Amino acid sequence: MSENRQLVALGEGVYTVPEAARILRPNMTEDRLRYWLNEGLLGEPVRRGYRGRPHLLSFKQLLRARTIRDLRGKLRFPLQKVRPVIKELSEAAFLSGKEWHALDFVWTPEGEIGVYDGGDYVYEVRTGQLMIPRALLPELQEIAREARKDWVRGEVGIANHPRLVSNARIVAGSPTIRGTRIETSFIAYVVGQFGVEETLKMYPYLDREAVEEAADFEGISFTA
Hints:
Blueprint: H1 2-9, E1 14-15, H2 17-23, H3 30-38, E2 57-58, H4 59-73, H5 79-95, E3 104-107, E4 113-116, E5 122-125, H6 137-153, E6 155-158, E7 161-167, E8 176-177, H7 184-194, H8 196-202, H9 208-217
């Protein structure tokens, strides 16, 4: 228990594999996350599961998983080509002292892809045998910038639910209604018990869109 309290106090965010998969839906599954974790693509977890204890992932690993997903989905990178590049992309997004908007992808004199941080350095991204067309550089740049932006603010949005977020500094990253500390699971429970209208009466500072999105995300049926 003391370990979990320390992790939450650090604002790191703590996610089980099922929780991370839910936040990264669509195009993410628990099996895929576990495979990437076992293959070392996500780095060492906060706690590696065993004997019925679940893996615990950090907010950084959540973003790293999303980056891998986007590299594969948006840029069609095969997994074997993601391996040599994900470490360098992660360092550019998470370890650079520069702001996320300063990251820029360039061609190095050696014909490799580099990440320019707006300062004096170009960090080489080793792509092995992978040849990335120049036309893909803007998309690659956007993926890294998005990861960097979300890392700095400690928050990721939830696809198809613009009023919901996972903020690493709020209730350990559990999905909440944006701008509040109210967990989607709690609002969904209330909706399931009393309906949307009664929920709005009990929590007048929430609007209908936020309440309905929370219920929908948690899989609770309701009448609009």
